[in-house]
Amino acid sequence: MKKRPNVTIKGTKDGLTLHLDDLCSYQDLKRELDSKLSAGYRAHEDRQLIPVRVQSGNRYLSPEQKEELRALIRQKKNLVVDSIESNVLTLEEADKLHEERQIITVARMVRSGQILEVPGDLLLIGDVNPGGTVMAAGNIFIMGSLKGIAHAGCKGDDQAVIAASSMKPAQLRISDCYNRAPDHIKSEEKHEMECAYIDQNRHIVVDRLQSLIHLRPDLTRLEGGR
Amino acid sequence: MGEAIVITSGKGGVGKTTTSANLGTALALQGKKVCLVDTDIGLRNLDVVMGLENRIIYDLVDVIQGRCKIHQALVKDKRFEDLLYLLPAAQTTDKSAVQPEQMKELIDQLKQDYDYIIIDCPAGIEQGYKNAVAGADKAIVVTTPEVSAVRDADRIIGLLEKEENIEPPKLIINRIRNHMMKSGDMLDVDEITTHLSIDLIGIVADDDEVIKASNHGEPIALNPNSKASIAYRNIARRILGESIPLQPLEENGKGVFSKLKKFFGVR
Ligand SMILES: Nc1ncnc2c1ncn2[C@@H]1O[C@H](COP(=O)(O)OP(=O)(O)OP(=O)(O)O)[C@@H](O)[C@H]1O
Ligand SMILES: [Mg+2]
Asked: Is A72 within 8 Å of chain B by CB?
């Protein structure tokens, strides 16, 4: 019986995809990966870097193993790992992911000197007063007035948005961008139902709420539906 | 068993001591047995505003450190038949002489004998504040219609809301000047109450009579004819559970009247 290879290499228009068998031992896998990459790809020495996507199927790779594979592939001159994808997660990772995708609802005032931080999206029912801060790894939705500081995507998500019934923030931060309120706000301006997001120039812009429908279609989590 | 109400503000000089003196006086006028407690150790002045300074023998720190019994330190207000007493703060010791647990014990003891314990809190959010709120069941936050005072009130409300033994605080807006509110140069009552989102229990006009009265050691609440006096007396009655609409002090036009419906009308 001809044995199936533990490592199959496919070329795509974006680079290489490595499919790793998920039943063989990790040691066998590493050995075969090393020999296959050494054999075939030395010829390209003078060419530009080739991105590699690694797919480990149903094999769980620990962070150390991932690092090992990255190092192994990086040794092959012009190959660089773009991503390592696996079908499996540890329970811990799954919990974390779940947390990050959750909308956390909080009904209270965030007052001067207080900081409210959540791991996923924040739905705040109440105001953020001047001197108060709300932070979320995901989006921030405020049913109330934002008069303090809001920091969405605080773990580095550029796609995160901030929306508020009344948008009069002291400062807005999304990912690593920030902008502050003009020094003189005209108090007559209502700023009702507005949102903030990062535009193509990596500036935070404030817009009417409805513009999110087109700018961030991923906000809709309802699948199928009508 | 009485109840203890702490009068606090965060920012200094907004009228905590004036409010304590006048609410204590107004509650005594209603026939309640009241004990005022000055916790502003090192900067006492409730005794001066009450005109009781020269009768002080012992003070709060003496009681806490066991140098005297509570009743020896209490100063009786002769204007009332056995209804109004003051426990003065120490003038010389520093604030760290008292711990929150000791304050709580003291206030609990006073609650046995008095209907209301009014606790005058020092400015700030440090040791003195912690001592003042330690024994309180209720809190009244005093602010003036200035942005900085409102900001500090917000900070204090946030801290008070974390105190499990204290009911949600109530708000007094002090030193209102009608012409400035009307012209929009001062925050108005509506703006402040919406911003702080707690119940308003009273508003007090900025009134020169208040300062004159304090300087004479006669709280304004004793003088039935001044606007500020009426305001303090009304707050006292609201504390007693009556539902009294905000006075048109108050002559304040629509702004205040719309609030009055919202806060007291439907109770
Ligand atoms: N409604 C009022 N109208 C006019 N003057 C007032 C009024 N309320 C308070 N004042 C004056 O403001 C000054 C400060 O008041 P007070 O001492 O009660 O403030 P406080 O909050 O206790 O200050 P501290 O933080 O220093 O303890 C005093 O001179 C007092 O007479
Ligand atoms: Mg004072």
From this structure: no
Give the global pTM: 0.81
CB atoms within 10 A of CB A91: 7
Identify from B125, B148, B154 which residue to disrupt to test chain A contact, counting A C-beta atoms within 10 A and taking the largest count: B154
Q: Is B206 in the pocket of ligand 1 (CB under 6 A)?
A: yes
Interface touch A113/B152, C-beta < 8 Å: no
Q: Give the pLDDT band (50/70/90) at residue A42.
A: low
CB contact, 8 Å: B52 with chain A?
A: no
Question: What are the helix (H) ranges across chain B?
Answer: 16-29, 46-49, 60-64, 70-73, 100-113, 127-134, 147-162, 178-182, 189-196, 208-215, 227-239, 254-260
Q: Which domains, and CATH codes, for chain B? A: 3-263 (3.40.50.300)
What is the spatial distance between Cα B66 and Cα B63, in angstroms, rounded to a whole number? 5
What's the token pair of residue B224? 């039935």
Nearest CA in chain A to B158: A111
What 3-state DSSP class applies to A138? coil
Question: Is residue B44 exposed (0-12), middle (13-18) or buried (19+ Cβ within 10 Å)?
Answer: buried
Share of chain A above pLDDT 70, in %: 91
pLDDT mean for each 10 residues of chain B (267 residues):
96 97 98 97 92 95 94 96 95 82 97 98 94 97 96 97 96 92 85 95 95 95 93 96 76 46 43
For residue A45, give the DSSP letter.
T
Between residues A101 and A149, which one has the greater pLDDT?
A149
**Phi, psi (deg, nearest 5) at residue B257:** -65, -35
Q: Name the nearest CA neighbour of B197 among B254, B226, B228, B157.
A: B157
- Which tokens go with A125? 């029912």
**Residue among A109, A127, A131 whose CB faces B151 most closely:** A131
Rounded Cα distance, A34 and A31, in Å:
5
Evaluate: CB of B214 within 6 angstroms of ligand 1: yes
Domains of chain A listed by start with CATH number: 7-85 (3.30.750), 95-219 (2.160.20.70)
Chain segment A131-157, per-residue pLDDT in tens: 999 999 999 999 999 999 999 999 999
Task: For tokens 């001197």, name the residue.
Answer: A131
